[in-house]
Specification:
234 residues; alpha/beta; TIM Barrel; 8 helices; globular
């Protein structure tokens, strides 16, 4: 029997299982994604930071901001990010005005609004174009607000360093998505081990109940700022 190939196979299988670890429990965290239609549970009492989906720019209409949370929230005790989910980046002027109006309404209700987050799945080769869009958006944003974006794990492994540097000059944070739908993406540790390549303060988004074991590299990453848990509907 050839022992070396057999041991290699065993080690590979163990590495593949290593992502399993434990499960993401919202009770262990204090930052959450809350999509429209998801009722917050007890975790809202411990929340320090909330990312609330306000609306979306849909693929078939770049000129409309579709509100998904028509009533402005009143959340004076948490840092709140207003999230815009976008399927495209060629926003019409009406979209910009609608987003700015929503931010004023949220702040007017007493919500501690700290900034705007854009939730857009920018493919790694297109990251330079995305940075250009974000620079223009940043220029429109009132100075008291920060700008956040969601990011793909692939950015850390394969993005052009110049494109990542362009993000550093524009956004205040990147929240890297480690899940798809309700499931943690297999092999996440290999990507997150390279997250320090992203030269912007970054967080990692986890899905409620998803498999998770913290990669050791995150503890050594000086720009890592913790986790955000995506809460699922009941």
């Amino acid at each position: 029997m050839r022992l070396r190939p057999f041991l290699g196979l065993v080690l590979a299988l163990l590495a593949g299982c290593g992502d399993a670890g434990g499960r993401v429990d919202p009770a262990d965290h204090d930052a959450f994604y809350l999509w429209a239609g998801v009722e917050p549970g007890p975790e809202l009492r411990q929340a320090r930071t909330l990312y609330l989906l306000a609306g979306e720019v849909r693929r078939d209409d770049p000129d409309s901001f579709v509100l998904l949370r028509p009533a402005a929230p009143r959340l004076p005790d948490q840092d709140v990010w207003l999230v815009v989910r976008a399927a495209r980046l060629d926003w019409g002027e009406d979209v910009h005005r609608a987003v700015e109006r929503a931010m004023r309404q949220w702040r007017g209700r007493g919500t501690r609004l700290v900034g705007l987050q854009v939730d857009f799945d920018a493919a790694t080769p297109e990251l330079g174009n995305y940075a250009t869009f974000l620079a223009a958006l940043r220029a429109r944003l009132p100075r008291e607000y920060r700008l956040s974006v969601t990011g793909l794990m692939d950015w850390s492994a394969h993005a052009d360093p110049a494109h990542l540097a362009a993000l550093r000059d524009t956004v205040d944070e990147v929240v890297v998505q480690s899940y798809q739908a309700r499931t943690t993406i297999p092999g996440y540790a290999a990507y997150l081990d390279k997250l320090a390549r992203v030269p912007v303060p970054h967080k990692v988004a986890l899905v409620e109940g998803g498999a998770w074991r913290e990669p050791a590299a995150l503890k050594q990453d000086p720009l890592f700022r913790g986790y955000v848990v995506f809460l699922l509907p009941d």
